[in-house]
Design goal:
There is one protein chain. This protein has about 350 residues and is an alpha/beta fold. It has helices at about 30-50, 65-70, 75-80, 80-90, 120-135, 150-160, 235-245, 250-260, 285-295, 315-330, 340-345, and strands at about 5-15, 60, 95, 100-105, 110-115, 165, 185, 205, 205-210, 220-225, 230, 270-275, 300-305, 335-340. Strands 1, 2, 3, 13 and 14 form a five-stranded parallel sheet that branches. Strand 1, helix 1 (about 30-50) and strand 2 form a beta-alpha-beta unit.
Length: about 350
């Protein structure tokens, strides 16, 4: 393996209600976020001791119509927890936005992920960025669209709204990964990231999954894809069996893709998203995969995202804790620096240092 030193690692925490979807008048609590606020200070101290460097995180706030429906304001989270968010920003953390395109359908009594309606998606994006500006007096530090959705039109809109960094792209992941979420109906298609770039790039206005070779100047929008890894590095058959038992509908869709004329193995990449919520039998293998991924693209970096229900779901919390504990015991931990997205770009020489 190629020797690596000072690899910037971005860990984004999507700040969401405990439940993905809910009906009007039945809004979900934010227990996961509140628990993460209690967990992170100790995690920050441990990482700083292990790496010998300051540790920073990213917090992606849900600001969208579903939040407005459930809590009376799209910026509910920023209003209720403003003091805590100011403390996080004061500690050097990045604060971004994480809108979803959820729309409540009163006739069918379901939540619709309305990705087919460009006007609706545009409105969700504009609401997130615009409301953030109103509350904080500046553009969000970064953007991550929810439910793995992205399109060229949305990426171009983000650019026009003055967003500097996006972290939506999840290389190796196919479209409509979570389209069987109970209580939901999905329209259109989420991002097809199977063959997305795995290194930081400026998205082309003609195709957000292609680098813009004509853009060599300062400013503009950067895409910072989450980290993916070789499929051979992923948990073996026992994990896959448990996953299939837990997600039978997803397994059926996967089988259908493999049997279809255009969705078989020939269209599948040799990698997939390196996810912190997977049940790794040996969490040390997660970091083996991560360092292997960082040894590939130049300049190297790592980027991961978790949801705040990591703080409230016992299984997710246990999985994340085991992964982070394994890192503390890894001799390579000193090669990492937990940084914000902007700091990662600066350390890679891709943006002006901050």
């Amino acid at each position: 393996m190629v020797a690596i030193s000072m690899v910037p690692l971005v860990l984004c925490i999507d700040v969401e209600p405990d439940a993905h979807v809910f009906a009007p008048g039945q809004s979900s609590p934010w227990t996961g976020f509140e628990n993460m606020l209690e967990l992170v200070p100790a995690l920050r101290r441990r990482l700083e001791e292990a790496t010998g460097k300051p540790a920073h995180f990213g917090w992606s706030l849900r600001i969208d119509p579903q939040i407005a429906m459930g809590y009376g304001s799209p910026t509910y989270i920023a209003e209720k927890y403003r003091a805590q968010l100011d403390d996080l920003a004061g500690a050097g953390d990045a604060i971004g936005v994480h809108p979803h395109a959820w729309r409540w359908d009163p006739v069918r009594q379901v939540t619709v992920a309305d990705h087919a309606d460009k006007q609706w998606v545009d409105g969700c994006t504009e609401l997130a960025v615009g409301s953030f500006r109103t509350i904080f007096g500046r553009a969000p530090d970064y953007h991550r669209f929810g439910a793995q959705y992205m399109s060229t039109a949305t990426m171009n809109l983000l650019r026009s709204l003055g967003v500097a960094i996006d972290l939506t792209v999840e290389p190796g992941e196919g479209p409509d990964r979570d389209a069987q979420l109970p209580g939901t109906v999905w329209t259109g298609q989420t991002g097809d990231f199977r063959h997305a770039p795995t290194a930081a790039y400026r998205p082309s206005p003609a195709d957000y999954l292609q680098p813009d070779d004509d853009d060599a100047g300062e400013g503009g929008l950067w895409e910072l894809p989450l980290t993916s890894s070789s499929r051979s590095r992923f948990p073996g058959p026992p994990h896959r069996l448990r996953s299939r038992l837990r997600h039978p509908l997803r397994s059926v869709r996967g089988l259908a893709r493999r049997l279809s004329p255009t969705g078989g193995t020939a269209s599948q990449p040799g990698h997939r998203l390196l996810a912190m919520w997977l049940d790794w039998p040996d969490p040390r293998h997660f970091w083996d995969a991560a360092f292997e991924a960082a040894s590939g693209p130049q300049p190297p970096y790592l980027a991961f995202a978790i949801r705040t229900d990591t703080g409230s779901d016992p299984a997710l919390r246990r999985t994340f804790t085991r992964i982070m504990d394994a890192l503390m015991e890894d001799k390579r931990v000193g090669d990492l620096g937990f940084v914000t997205p902007a700091q990662a770009l600066a350390q890679m020489g891709l943006a002006t240092p901050i």
